[in-house]
């Protein structure tokens, strides 16, 4: 099968979209498929033996490390040259809109992978009135896809409520070797918490949309050492608010594996997660999770089993959930064991096999099945 992936971001940016695309490419290469990538990237010219084609992009003024792609006619020409059987749209927004239009012109089915809660993202940056326009634009893209894959049941329900058709559930895989309790490092633990404190950790982007300012609620918990892994525009302010925390910066590979497995409790502050890969990786590392009861974590965290959930708008209850786990080593140990067991079936191999089945399904349905309700590609979305 020939798969063209049109991604909203890719290497060298490290985020959930990039990680998913890389894992899919690894699987396609291992199974003997052909692939290509189009993305707003100044990164590698290839990945897993497949070409990567860059599109024009610009940097967000409030988030300089994040590049946003621009619409480009190059996407149609790249796809026409490659002659794909299916177009994979990774978190389609701007580049993805060009991708779905190109697929329609070429008569090729597009499978859209919904991954980013743009409306929630905009609200966290003060754009509270943007919801109608954002959802109109997203619907404009997704109604032209042969199938939209939602990462969680909560996200699937939201997409359905906003009129997105042909929905299927497709989660995310996790590397059970890379994220494993076996990587717990007592030497690193002594370095991070020399007083023997309970290590409460956060891993992720340090940005307003992740609500990282809520970590300040944990700053004065007795017997706790707060460890923050990641980088982003909120990092300087967060360092000032948390002078007693350990800031590790961005960690990847074996360094991230050791750090995450060495936590005692993982806390996630975001409330607009369509899936939340960071939570899943913590569970795989055998670390109980405290997360907001919203979006993807609702599918991942079993309260009292592998972690605890708190109402998204209650920082006080987030603090109380963390305090409960800090005060109960036996509960942490039990939940840590259950955390690992809860994700054992969520390997990238099994998830990517299901993805290829989705590709095959839309090819089997034929063009009439996915173009019947699709609008004119040149028409503007209502409400946008």
TrEMBL record:
It holds the Pfam family Glycos_transf_1. This is GDP-mannose-dependent alpha-mannosyltransferase. Residues 190-341 form the Glycosyl transferase family domain. Keywords: Glycosyltransferase, Transferase. Residues 14-178 form the Glycosyltransferase subfamily 4-like N-terminal domain. InterPro entries: Glyco_trans_1, Glyco_trans_4-like_N, Glycosyltransferase_grp1. It comes from Microbispora corallina. Gene3D superfamilies: Glycogen Phosphorylase B.
């Amino acid at each position: 099968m020939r798969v063209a992936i049109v991604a909203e971001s890719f290497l060298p940016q490290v985020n959930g979209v990039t990680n998913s695309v890389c894992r899919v490419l690894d699987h396609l290469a291992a199974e003997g498929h052909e692939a290509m990538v189009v993305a707003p990237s100044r990164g590698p010219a290839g990945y897993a033996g497949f070409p990567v084609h860059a599109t024009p992009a610009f940097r967000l003024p409030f988030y300089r490390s994040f590049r946003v792609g621009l619409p480009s006619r190059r996407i149609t020409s790249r796809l026409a040259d490659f002659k794909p059987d299916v177009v994979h749209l990774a978190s389609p927004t701007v580049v993805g809109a060009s991708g779905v239009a190109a697929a329609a012109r070429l008569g090729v089915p597009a499978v859209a992978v919904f991954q980013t809660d743009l409306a929630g993202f905009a609200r966290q940056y003060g754009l509270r009135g943007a919801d109608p326009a954002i959802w109109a634009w997203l619907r404009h893209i997704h109604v032209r896809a042969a199938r939209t894959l939602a990462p969680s049941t909560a996200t699937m329900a939201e997409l359905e409520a906003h009129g997105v058709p042909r929905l299927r559930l497709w989660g995310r895989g996790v590397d059970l070797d890379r994220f494993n309790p076996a990587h717990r490092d007592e030497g690193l633990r002594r370095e991070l918490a020399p007083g023997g404190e309970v290590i409460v950790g956060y891993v992720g982007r340090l940005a307003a949309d992740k609500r990282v300012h809520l970590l300040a609620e944990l700053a004065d918990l007795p017997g706790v050492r707060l460890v923050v892994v990641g980088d982003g525009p909120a990092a300087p302010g967060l360092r000032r608010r948390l002078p007693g925390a350990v800031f590790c910066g961005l960690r990847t590979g074996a360094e991230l594996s050791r750090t995450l497995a060495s936590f005692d409790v993982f806390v996630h502050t975001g409330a607009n997660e369509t899936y939340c890969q960071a939570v899943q990786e913590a569970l795989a590392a055998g670390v109980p999770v405290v997360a907001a009861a919203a979006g993807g974590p609702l599918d991942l965290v079993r309260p009292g089993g592998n972690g605890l959930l708190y109402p998204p708008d209650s920082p006080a209850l987030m603090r109380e959930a963390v305090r409960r786990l800090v005060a109960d080593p036996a509960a942490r140990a039990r939940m840590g064991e259950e955390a690992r067991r809860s994700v054992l079936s969520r390997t990238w191999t099994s998830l990517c096999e299901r993805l290829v089945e989705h590709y095959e399904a839309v090819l089997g349905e034929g063009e009439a099945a996915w173009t019947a309700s699709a609008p004119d590609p040149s028409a503007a979305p209502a409400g946008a």
